Task: structure prediction
Amino acid sequence: MTIPKDKLLRSEELGEYVTNMFATNMPFIDLLGMKMIYQGTERAEVHLPWKDNLMGNPIQKVLHGGVTAAILDTVGGLMAILHAVAEMDNVTLEEFHHRVGKMSTIDMRIDYLRPGKGEKFIATAEVIRKGSRVAVCRMELHNESGTHIAFGTGTYMIA
Amino acid sequence: MTIPKDKLLRSEELGEYVTNMFATNMPFIDLLGMKMIYQGTERAEVHLPWKDNLMGNPIQKVLHGGVTAAILDTVGGLMAILHAVAEMDNVTLEEFHHRVGKMSTIDMRIDYLRPGKGEKFIATAEVIRKGSRVAVCRMELHNESGTHIAFGTGTYMIA
Amino acid sequence: MTIPKDKLLRSEELGEYVTNMFATNMPFIDLLGMKMIYQGTERAEVHLPWKDNLMGNPIQKVLHGGVTAAILDTVGGLMAILHAVAEMDNVTLEEFHHRVGKMSTIDMRIDYLRPGKGEKFIATAEVIRKGSRVAVCRMELHNESGTHIAFGTGTYMIA
Amino acid sequence: MTIPKDKLLRSEELGEYVTNMFATNMPFIDLLGMKMIYQGTERAEVHLPWKDNLMGNPIQKVLHGGVTAAILDTVGGLMAILHAVAEMDNVTLEEFHHRVGKMSTIDMRIDYLRPGKGEKFIATAEVIRKGSRVAVCRMELHNESGTHIAFGTGTYMIA
Result:
């Protein structure tokens, strides 16, 4: 996907672009094997297939707590950017990157509800506090059978 | 290190054993390249050398927020187990594993203070709420120059 | 409500008893004007009518953030006890008080979503992580028109 | 303290002014009996003498968890404003109020370390993440003997 630097992009196009950027441009996301699923700018979704090197305790065969935190931070951060993107329209990539460069996680809470067992994990996020500078997202992690593994709450600087 | 199953271990020996178990037995810790540093049962320390595949945003060349969360959860969890171990004495490995099997993170908060830039990262933890069933740990992440990158607080089930 | 000390109480009776105890026996709950609403052992609800002395900033005429935290801690703590009570049956008051004496909040996170404006505030809670020793509750605060004011998450020692 | 609306105030004067405003102008702070202690713009301190109506559980004779949350939110919020004030100089009260009107708590975590027993409680705060729009504060609550009762972390919108 090559987009001319000065093309004016609609909110939808920016949403797809940023989701694709997460998928292809962030080495740690690739190391874990996360897949970004674009679903518009109102909701974010990230998938993670089980791999043995994501294990914490090998006796229990469950995800390391850090993997859970990493996928929840990723889906929350993606959601926060999509929320910012939803307000943008007719923006060039250059202007968009100028804004994205300042985005960062301020804080995050993870509640571990059940052991991270499964073959595939699905993380979702939605915005619970909207703002032009700060967005607060609520995140959830389920496995392929719908077992609820963890809750997250993240506060993100978006401008 | 092979220890007979029925040998009675002192607190110090268990501390070294569990630190070594984290180092050699947890695939995700290995994937990231974390090193466990044993320093007795009062304080936990984990080191992480920079690797390009730990990056989030490649423009900024900083740690992905999930890496920060993962190393803080690891050092906090190790600290919580060491705290439990400090109360154990003359315990066999079998009994020890029986107890460790129930340990888990209940919740964790991360405060991201500064971008995760550096060549080596040092995570430390101490216990702020002691208990026989639940321990609360305070964690910190610094880089090799002493820049303070993140704070963490984790609540761990230890029995 | 006078209950003989050695009477064996069912879970339902204990639930009503503990809700009543919160309502009549906790001076701070009375100072703020909170009303405990008993709804069985699966869900907790606390109401708070607006009073001028609950204000933080008088220009905005909104609840002080500490009031929001206090009502969410109260409804979460009540929920955690009700959850423990749901597992008890044929228990005397003496035994019940022996257990309740050890209950305490370990940690709590509040997310302030919107200014605390309204004439009456409704706090609700449910358990998201069940356990015999620790329960994690999710709490919400709304006003009388259904405006969502705050989220809370609390980790409670229940035994 | 009457200050002409168009007088240009120095950072120090604004710090004293805002501390005084918390003390005299916030009904809930008065209801609990908190005292604001001005100590410059680098550190905030709030005192709270014990009163029976701040009790949660009357058997244990300890502060209700909501009181702890309220005083920590107050000292953290004061600190966040003082931090913003430290960057202001030659500002009129009108301009100052225009900015303060937008300040609010985004989220807060409380870690309850020990029962809130004592005759007088001292809450302190410092800024751990500085920014022009968002400040993150670390708060602590001790009693008059130096017993550490609680930790807090709060994220505040300051512009």
The CA atoms of residues 56 and 66 of chain D lie 8 Å apart. The interface with chain B takes residues 109, 111-114, 128-129, 136, 138, 151, 153 of chain D (CB under 8 Å). The mean pLDDT of chain D is 93.
